[in-house]
Amino acid sequence: MTRFTVNNQPVAYDMGPETPLLWALRDASNLTGTKYGCGTGECGACTVDIDGKAVRSCQVTIAQIEGTFVTTIEGLSQDRSHPVQQALIASNVPQCGYCIPGIVMAASALLREKRDPSDSEIAEAITNLCRCGIYPRLTAAIRQAARIARGDERVTPPPRPGTGPAEAARSVPAIRAEAAEAD
């Protein structure tokens, strides 16, 4: 049995030790935010955080990460309050959304290491593929996320997950009023 921590919960997988982490997360833990893309580590859709580093989960086995701490997109922030999520939403970066969880995980690892990454540092760290071509907006959004994380900028938080369109439309003025009062 392979044991490690996923999203701050200890887990023990009764799966073959050669099982890729991607499939343990998706099939055994039902953490489907970690996406299967290419299966070769090229696309980055399966990126998770392992002990503070962005790792392509299709390329590591559960035996290789025994005793580690794994964070998936579900464990990063359930209410989309992480600075990277806030910035991507505020900048309208996501399109189809398939690559976004992996990109968010890679960007969050980058911002943990570098509080103010340059465009070239962002390009070097975020090698995830996006068929929609979000790259120019993505770089700007990651720089915005760095400002949010440092406290240099605030954005209006997105509606909570599961909020219906009518409720979301009503909540935007209230959210903006709350943000103005906080300043």
Automatic annotation (TrEMBL):
Ranges where the 2Fe-2S ferredoxin-type domain occurs: 1-76
PANTHER family for the chain: BLR6218 PROTEIN (PTHR44379:SF2), OXIDOREDUCTASE WITH IRON-SULFUR SUBUNIT (PTHR44379)
PROSITE patterns in the cross-refs: 2FE2S_FER_1, 2FE2S_FER_2
Pfam families registered for this protein in UniProt: Fer2 (PF00111), Fer2_2 (PF01799)
Organism this protein belongs to: Stakelama pacifica
Chain residue ranges for the region called Disordered: 149-183
GO molecular function: 2 iron, 2 sulfur cluster binding; metal ion binding; oxidoreductase activity
Gene3D superfamilies registered for this protein in UniProt: 3.10.20.30, [2Fe-2S]-binding domain
Keywords: 2Fe-2S, Iron, Iron-sulfur, Metal-binding, Oxidoreductase
The protein's name in its UniProt record: Isoquinoline 1-oxidoreductase alpha subunit
Matching InterPro entries: 2Fe-2S-bd, 2Fe-2S-bd_dom_sf, 2Fe-2S_ferredoxin-like_sf, 2Fe-2S_ferredoxin-type, 2Fe2S_fd_BS, Beta-grasp_dom_sf, Diverse_Oxidoreductases
